[in-house]
Amino acid sequence: MKFETRAVHAGLSVDENTGAIAPPIHLSTTFGRDEASQPIGRHTYIRESNPNQERLEQAVAELEGGEAGLAFASGMAAGAAVFEALEPGTHMVIPDDVYYGFGVAAQEFCNKWGITFDAVPMEDLDQLSAAIRPETGLIWVETPSNPLLKVVDIRRITALARQADATTIVDNTFATPVLLRPLDLGVDFVVHSMTKYLAGHGDIMGGALICKEEHRQLVTVLTRTLGPNLGPFEAYLTMRGIKTLPLRVERQCQNARRVAAWLSDHPRVERVYFPGDPEHPDIETSRRLFPKDLFGGMVSFEIKDAGRDEVFAFMDALKMIVPATTLGDVHSLVLYPAISTHRDLAPKHRARIGIRDNLVRVSVGIEAVEDIEADLDQALKQ
Ligand SMILES: *Cc1c(COP(=O)(O)O)cnc(C)c1O
Fold it and tell me: What is the mean pLDDT of the chain?
């Protein structure tokens, strides 16, 4: 079956008792046992497993082509489970522009847990190779990156990891399995913030880890014991979102391509960052990695001669596009990295990773592209 069909049908079944097609939401925290004290069904207690979580876990595993899927209360909880499973003494390599939460987690906790790390620009394979040591156990990849949308060559990174006997993990939040299935390229783990594209409607927080069978046991023990699991209601809503994932993401990709090309010609725009831009330094990698004409729904751009005041005036003038932190929702969103996601970085660090004070990031929604462009245009003219 094709991906679009799987997205709609994953976890779909007729309820034996009622005939209901939409899955029931099971809020029960506990599940009955028979006279021999054996569980009547597959579940015993909500933290260990529950029917809504189980359906979602099967669905995300299927979409990513993994054997095991685990649902978490947030993307951070999903990623943290991998950190927690590392042995003391392990070294890891992370991107220097990793999602800020994972950067903070590495800074704050690795030392306490006896884990060391190097943060490198992942697109530079020489720097990555140089950072790998005999004790390197994990290589963390995030692609396209935030907010400059750099795309890295996953196949070459997994080849380096294999030589070093290191595990690889890809944060697939931005690409989604519509664009990229890292496990098919030899990656060991995929992590998602389902809060973004997978759920897609800006109304739930959730995360997922997908892996091969051989890694399931390690993470399952850890999560079912420490309890960062996703609740049944969030699992239900995420399943609902996943049914339209391919439709939404394809539309977001189309809109983003149009918006990126339009912005490139705008007199108030200095530079556009979009993985499908023929001028983008990673365009060849993007073309190899992603399906034809799909480059993601995120576009970043720099406003010509703008300082903070001008960027604030632009954001303030937007009438439809919502200034907000998140991404991947059905409606378009705009974010100012220098004062939000990247505000805690020292200005020098921000400059080194290329995040300038005139940079804004747009998460392009599914609206009519003409309306998105019209709103950007009137706000850029303020
Ligand atoms: C949002 C995000 C996360 C963290 O997910 P939460 O659901 O907010 O915990 C991780 N990685 C990326 C790329 C994200 O955008």
Answer: 95
Confidence check: pLDDT of 115 > 90:
yes
- Burial class (CB within 10 angstroms; exposed 0-12, middle 13-18, buried 19+) of 108: exposed
Choice from 94, 140, 170, 195 to test ligand 1 binding pocket (greatest atom count within 8 A of CB):
195
34 Cα to the center of ligand 1, angstroms = 41
- Residue 47 among the catalytic residues: yes
Judge if the beta carbon of residue 171 lies within 6 A of ligand 1: yes
Q: Domain coordinates of the chain in residue numbers?
A: 3-242, 245-380
Given its phi and psi angles, is residue 272 left (phi above 0), alpha (psi -120 to 50 degrees) or beta?
beta
Per CATH, the architecture of 3-242 is what?
A: 3-Layer(aba) Sandwich (3.40)
CATH class of the domain whose range is 245-380? alpha beta
Instruction: For residues 121 and 289, give the distance between their C-alpha atoms in angstroms, rounded to a whole number.
Output: 19
* Predicted structure pTM score: 0.96
